[in-house]
């Protein structure tokens, strides 16, 4: 049990460090010092950094799958989806997926494939939520859900990047604009 707990601690710390300084900047030495263990202990659980990156992605995938399988309304799922992606991020943090995306070409092929998998799942999960939102009249039925999902994710992650540079939390402004411009209730047609 302690072995699995240590493995989970390593993954969680890696996620935290990815949010603050990015995947490429993380070393096993950083992890070992912060956990109070030897580098050999980290290597015991994750022989290569690629293995650790894959474990982090698997953790994110499980989170997305839980969101996807939730029976909550589209409105609640959308708020939870966005809140989860930003709740642990201050104005100096980066999305872990974005951290990996920025270094995509320098990642080992196996990690690139895992990253593509999680990116596709993230987009599909949000697309499915938005499609359900059409049925619940959360968004207009004419909206293109896949394009809107890409717009929302790009905007949120872009707000995080700009916030990191400027030292301000731009996320609330972005969400306010989405609520104002895109996520409207269906209005009755004129003459209907």
Describe the overall structure.
The protein has 192 residues and is mainly α. The protein has a domain of 132 residues: Tetracycline Repressor, domain 2. 71% of the residues lie in helices and 0% in strands. The chain is built from nine helices and no strands. The chain starts with a helix and ends in an 11-residue tail after the last helix. The C terminus is likely disordered. It holds the Pfam family TetR_N. Keywords: DNA-binding, Transcription, Transcription regulation. GO terms for molecular function: DNA binding. This is TetR/AcrR family transcriptional regulator. InterPro entries: Homeodomain-like_sf (IPR009057), HTH_TetR (IPR001647), Tet_transcr_reg_TetR-rel_C_sf (IPR036271).
List keywords for this structure.
TetR/AcrR family transcriptional regulator, transcription, DNA-binding, mainly alpha, 71% helix, HTH_TetR, DNA binding, Tetracycline Repressor, domain 2, disordered C terminus
């Amino acid at each position: 049990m302690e072995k699995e707990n240590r493995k989970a601690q390593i993954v969680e710390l890696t996620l935290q460090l990815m949010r603050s300084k990015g995947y490429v900047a993380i070393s096993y030495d950083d992890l070992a010092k912060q956990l109070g263990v030897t580098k050999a202990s980290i290597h015991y659980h994750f022989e290569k950094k690629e293995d650790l990156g894959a474990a982090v992605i698997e953790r994110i995938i499980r989170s997305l799958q839980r969101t996807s399988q939730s029976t909550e309304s589209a409105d609640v799922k959308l708020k939870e989806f966005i809140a989860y992606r930003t709740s642990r991020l201050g104005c100096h943090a980066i999305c872990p997926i974005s951290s990996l995306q920025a270094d995509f070409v320098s990642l080992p092929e196996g990690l690139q494939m895992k990253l593509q998998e999680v990116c596709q799942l993230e987009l599909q999960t949000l697309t499915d939520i938005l499609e359900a939102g059409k049925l619940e009249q959360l968004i207009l039925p004419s909206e293109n859900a896949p394009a809107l999902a890409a717009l929302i994710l790009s905007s949120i992650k872009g707000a995080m990047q700009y916030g990191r540079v400027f030292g301000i939390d731009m996320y609330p402004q972005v969400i306010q604009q989405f609520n104002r411009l895109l996520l409207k209730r269906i209005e009755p047609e004129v003459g209907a």
